[in-house]
Design a protein that fits this description.
- The chain has strands at 11-20, 23-32, 39-43, 50-52, 56-64, 71-75, 82-84, 102-105, 112-129, 134-149, 156-164, 167-175.
- It has 177 residues and is mainly beta.
- It folds into two domains: 11-84; 102-175, Immunoglobulin-like.
- Strands 8, 9, 10, 11 and 12 form a five-stranded antiparallel sheet that branches. The chain has a four-stranded antiparallel sheet with strand order 4-3-6-7, with no helix packed on it. A three-stranded antiparallel sheet has the order 1-2-5, with no helix packed on it.
- A hairpin with a 4-residue loop joins strand 9 (112-129) and strand 10.
- The radius of gyration is 16 Å and the shape is globular.
Length: 177
């Protein structure tokens, strides 16, 4: 019988440390590497990869003070094990306040992604690739459900983020073709 593997993500405290002089710096403290480390970390603004292989304090930046940064961590041991940061910016250093409930199905998806909300929702659904690149941005106007084609998405792991004035929430999505 094959053993079941459960990914345990690292425990990270994220802080927008500086928003002065037109620059954004993000400090983060890794207190536990989880069971799938070391981790490769990328973000949606800059190129390159940072390796997170020990507990301790790290800094990202500088970014422009108007940037909105989302970091994605991908296990070097198990590529299907990923974790994402909260959305980090000078104007919105929120840490997952007001978790919003939504469902993403089927998961894994191969043709269409259905995203369903508890009630009529206004805001935006954004999808990031595992390297932090924004690949889909879908505005929502009092919608209970949105359907997105996977035609323009490569096979892989994505992060689906629901953004509203009251908070953000995210889900992991796997696309297969």
């Amino acid at each position: 019988m094959m053993a079941h593997y459960e990914c345990v993500s690292p425990i990270i405290d994220w802080v927008v440390s500086t928003c002065e002089g037109g620059f954004l710096y993000v400090d983060f403290n890794v207190t536990d590497l989880g069971n799938a480390g070391p981790w490769n970390m990328v973000n949606n603004i800059s190129t390159g990869t940072m390796v997170i292989d020990e507990v301790g304090a790290y800094e990202l930046g500088p970014f422009s003070s108007g940037d909105v940064v989302v970091c994605t961590l991908i296990s070097q041991l198990f590529s299907s094990c990923i974790a994402t940061s909260p959305t980090l910016s000078c104007t919105n250093s929120i840490t997952e306040v007001n978790q919003l409930d939504f469902n993403v199905y089927p998961n894994p998806a191969n043709e269409l992604i259905n995203i369903e909300f508890e009630s009529a929702t206004t805001g935006e659904v954004v999808i990031y690739s595992s390297n932090g690149q924004l690949v889909v941005s879908e505005p929502l106007q009092s919608m209970n459900r949105v359907e997105i084609s996977t035609d323009n998405l490569a096979e892989g792991i994505y992060t689906v983020v629901l953004v509203q004035d009251t908070g953000i929430s995210r889900k992991t999505l796997i696309v297969t073709h």
